[in-house]
Structures are given as C-alpha cells and as structure tokens.
C-alpha cells in the first residue's frame, strides 16, 4: 500500500486534486468526514464533548450543534485544544481501520488521505508522500467569497486561522500550484499520479 497525505488551506483546490487522483484509481479517505462520524449521536466522541462543553452544544435531536460548539472553540485556543484532544485520537483510530481495510482489499492500493489540518493536528501517519495543494491567499479569499458566499472579512479570517504556507511547505514532498487554470492543476495531479505509479512499481520489484 502507498499512502499519500494530501493537505492544503481552505479553498486551496485540495478537493480537486483528490478527485483527480481518485479518477486514476486511488482510494480516498476524507478526514473531515471521519471527524463528523466520530461525533455522531451515540458515539463516545459526542458523549465526551457533552461532558466537557456542556449540554448546550448538543441539539434537541441529539446531534452535535456545530454552531454552538464553534462559538466556544473558534476564538479560544485552550477550548479548541480540548476539542482536538477528543476528536483527533478518534479520527486516528478510525483512519487506521480504513487504511487496514484498503490494504486487505488490495495490497497495492494507493490511498489518498485528505487531511485539511495535517499541520495543525500534527498527523503522524507514516505517509509515503505528503502533497500540498497551494493557492495564494488572495485567490483563496476570492474563492470563498465567490463560491461559498462569505464576506471578504470572514473569508480572510478563515484563511488566517489556519497554518501558514511556510508551515505547510516545510512538510511537503510535492506542492501542486492551483492558482492557475483547472487544466493546469489537473496536469500536475496527472504527473503526480505517474510518479506514484513509478515509485510503487520500483518498490514492488
């Protein structure tokens, strides 16, 4: 099995790169989706969140009230650390199970682990390759405004709240520049896929 850690800031084009790799045959594991699964009703994760943050963060229907929780953790690093201490280990356990499942189904599987907060969460899976999707801050802010309807101020705050470009570049084996056209991003993803196939073939020989 060959495991790629794919990361990038909000609106950096990371999902576009992931989709292209999946089109080529990669197995996609999305950390954001796992983070939602580990706090679904009935999970240990949600029970712990309720215990730490109180009943106000759980709605009447028994689901996590993300808005209420966000109001607590978004502007308070200490509270955010408490939340991360609950969610990140649970995501780690679940992702490890999914890696094992992918390898059992195909020992030669190429897995893309899509982790927006790879830097912030200090994810330490043994990646064969770390890929960073990158776009300039002004491009990402523009995408958030035009595609997601955020105000310019809110968009800049979301971008600034994440790891810096320098922090991501420090862990990157490959940087895919998504500032240009979609076709340009796709061609870089295609070249990446060929590199991975070549490396996998050498490893298997």
Can you walk me through this structure?
The protein is 57% helix and 12% strand. The chain is of the alpha/beta class and 205 residues long. The chain has a single domain, classed as Rossmann fold (3-Layer(aba) Sandwich), CATH 3.40.50. A 5-stranded parallel beta sheet has the order 2-3-1-4-5, with helices on both faces. α1 crosses α9 (182-204) and α3 (44-53) packs antiparallel against α5. It is globular. The mean pLDDT is 91. It comes from Luethyella okanaganae. Pathway: Cofactor biosynthesis; coenzyme A biosynthesis; CoA from (R)-pantothenate: step 5/5. Belongs to the CoaE family. Its EC number is 2.7.1.24. It catalyses: 3'-dephospho-CoA + ATP = ADP + CoA + H(+).
SSE inventory with pairings:
Layout: E1 2-7, H1 14-24, E2 27-30, H2 31-37, H3 44-53, H4 66-73, H5 77-105, E3 110-114, E4 129-134, H6 137-148, H7 152-160, H8 165-171, E5 174-177, H9 182-204
Parallel strand pairs: 1-3, 1-4, 2-3, 4-5
Number of domains: 1
CATH topology: Rossmann fold
Distance between the termini: 14 Å
Given this structure, which CATH class is correct? Alpha Beta
Characterize the main sheet. Answer: 5 strands, parallel
Number of helices: 9
Give the integer mean of the pLDDT values. 91
Physical arrangement of strands within the biggest beta sheet: 2-3-1-4-5
Low-confidence stretches: none
Which structural class do the helices and strands define?
A: alpha/beta
CATH superfamily: P-loop containing nucleotide triphosphate hydrolases
* String of helices and strands: EHEHHHHEEHHHEH
- CATH architecture designation: 3-Layer(aba) Sandwich
What is the CA-based Rg, rounded? 18 Å
Instruction: Please provide the count of β strands.
Output: 5
């Amino acid at each position: 099995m060959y495991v790629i850690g794919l990361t990038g800031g909000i609106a950096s084009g990371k999902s576009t790169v992931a989709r292209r790799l999946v089109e080529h045959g990669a197995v996609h594991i999305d950390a954001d989706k796992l983070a939602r699964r580990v706090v679904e009703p009935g999970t240990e994760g949600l029970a712990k969140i309720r215990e730490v943050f109180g009943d106000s963060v759980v709605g009447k229907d028994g689901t996590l009230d993300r808005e209420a929780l966000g109001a607590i953790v978004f502007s308070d690093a200490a509270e955010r650390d408490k939340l991360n201490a609950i969610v990140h280990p649970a995501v780690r356990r679940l992702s490890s199970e999914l890696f094992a499942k992918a390898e059992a189904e195909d020992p030669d599987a190429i897995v893309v682990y899509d982790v927006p907060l790879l830097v912030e969460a200090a994810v330490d899976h043994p990646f064969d390759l770390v890929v960073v999707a990158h776009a300039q801050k002004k491009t990402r802010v523009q995408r958030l405004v035009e595609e997601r309807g955020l105000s310019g101020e809110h968009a800049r705050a979301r971008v600034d709240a994440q790891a810096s470009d320098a922090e991501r570049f420090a862990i990157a084996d490959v940087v895919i520049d998504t500032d240009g056209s979609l076709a340009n991003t796709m061609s870089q993803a295609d070249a990446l896929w060929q590199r991975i196939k070549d490396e996998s073939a050498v490893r298997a020989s």
